């Protein structure tokens, strides 16, 4: 087991990484300001209010990156920063006799956020409902009871993370697979650390080729720059991103067999049907968006109706079903099932909704409005010119992926979408890929990595991940080259 001193050092390294992230944002903003100043003329980018808005955003994001050290949820500083930035922007606009344009810009940002908020809320509700029905617990128990070797578990958890994350989000997928390796590999810290790295890479790679796999891909789909089926062009590059580091790490997995473990889980009534309803909800959203040109959120909210009606059926038939199961359990002398039935409660749709990741949803609101405010001031157009006109577009999109390993990929991708640079379809897919998988290079680069540092505390740390960063970077480069070669006709 790691010592408290190593934990202390790990925390310091995460603090240094956070400060480096804030510095990176400051340098990027500074570059755009310098470009604006060189262009000449009076504009908001060279106004003191513009500088102050950038400083507020950088300061807020520094607090976000120091979340684990300060124990302050990441939504708090960005919510405050968003309000201050828009009050400054609106005040400056009003002072120049133009309050309407600021209101219109803010309204556009709020509309974009509301669509994504409701979409994510439905997806999170379904995932929480599956968890409440103990579907994920049953999957974990099945894996634990199979008695796989460490090498087998390394590949099985990685492949499952890659395959589940396109449907569920990569954070939930990573937490589920981490629970498996923590249970089976508790006597091998080295295996847990390596398996967690593999899970983070696999979950991020799997989420990159599906609109449902990550918030960034969802934003790209909602924006309309990439259609639903076109994301699957990234399947092979994403697979390469996962397989290259996994294949190298395979040779360093401990050889000793894990201790046998047993775990029994009985899924609650309706677990499998909840999965079917979730797939039906996704189908509804995709068909409505692709063929009727409705916002995808309309189909998702309709899918929430599916779950509510099903929840009503579970509730009205609850007592009859419990009585039936209790009689069967008494006949079979199943004490465990009887104990569970004694504590059974009806399905409540609002319980999964309440357990949604509200901190993430509110953080997303703050990011959208902060970036929107900086975009209204004019910084995004300057950064767009700096990256996508002065640089080669491929190099710029590769750099976006590297930046997403340091800074959260949500504000990075939202900024790119707000810039709306003129790019080929292949380039839009490239930036979708790099923003999705680039966060795997550092443990703090994705929500999956940050979550696993907490779940596998002491086993999976920033330095544990950093030791394998070179092979992850190799996979990152291989996935980009695969996309450039395989989808060359799209460029």
TrEMBL record:
<keyword id="KW-0406">Ion transport</keyword>
<feature type="transmembrane region" description="Helical">
    <location>
        <begin position="361"/>
        <end position="379"/>
    </location>
</feature>
<keyword id="KW-0812">Transmembrane</keyword>
<feature type="transmembrane region" description="Helical">
    <location>
        <begin position="231"/>
        <end position="253"/>
    </location>
</feature>
<keyword id="KW-0472">Membrane</keyword>
<keyword id="KW-0813">Transport</keyword>
<dbReference type="GO" id="GO:0006814">
    <property type="term" value="P:sodium ion transport"/>
</dbReference>
<feature type="transmembrane region" description="Helical">
    <location>
        <begin position="274"/>
        <end position="292"/>
    </location>
</feature>
<keyword id="KW-1133">Transmembrane helix</keyword>
<feature type="transmembrane region" description="Helical">
    <location>
        <begin position="148"/>
        <end position="168"/>
    </location>
</feature>
<feature type="domain" description="Citrate transporter-like">
    <location>
        <begin position="62"/>
        <end position="436"/>
    </location>
</feature>
<comment type="similarity">
    <text>Belongs to the NhaD Na(+)/H(+) (TC 2.A.62) antiporter family.</text>
</comment>
<feature type="signal peptide">
    <location>
        <begin position="1"/>
        <end position="36"/>
    </location>
</feature>
<protein>
    <submittedName>
        <fullName>Sodium/proton antiporter, NhaD family (TC 2.A.62)</fullName>
    </submittedName>
</protein>
<feature type="transmembrane region" description="Helical">
    <location>
        <begin position="110"/>
        <end position="127"/>
    </location>
</feature>
<dbReference type="GO" id="GO:0016020">
    <property type="term" value="C:membrane"/>
</dbReference>
<feature type="transmembrane region" description="Helical">
    <location>
        <begin position="466"/>
        <end position="486"/>
    </location>
</feature>
<keyword id="KW-0739">Sodium transport</keyword>
<dbReference type="GO" id="GO:0015297">
    <property type="term" value="F:antiporter activity"/>
</dbReference>
<feature type="transmembrane region" description="Helical">
    <location>
        <begin position="298"/>
        <end position="316"/>
    </location>
</feature>
<feature type="transmembrane region" description="Helical">
    <location>
        <begin position="78"/>
        <end position="95"/>
    </location>
</feature>
<feature type="transmembrane region" description="Helical">
    <location>
        <begin position="399"/>
        <end position="417"/>
    </location>
</feature>
<feature type="transmembrane region" description="Helical">
    <location>
        <begin position="46"/>
        <end position="66"/>
    </location>
</feature>
<dbReference type="Pfam" id="PF03600">
    <property type="entry name" value="CitMHS"/>
</dbReference>
<keyword id="KW-0050">Antiport</keyword>
<keyword id="KW-0915">Sodium</keyword>
<feature type="transmembrane region" description="Helical">
    <location>
        <begin position="429"/>
        <end position="454"/>
    </location>
</feature>
<dbReference type="InterPro" id="IPR004680">
    <property type="entry name" value="Cit_transptr-like_dom"/>
</dbReference>
<keyword id="KW-0732">Signal</keyword>
<dbReference type="InterPro" id="IPR045016">
    <property type="entry name" value="NhaD-like"/>
</dbReference>
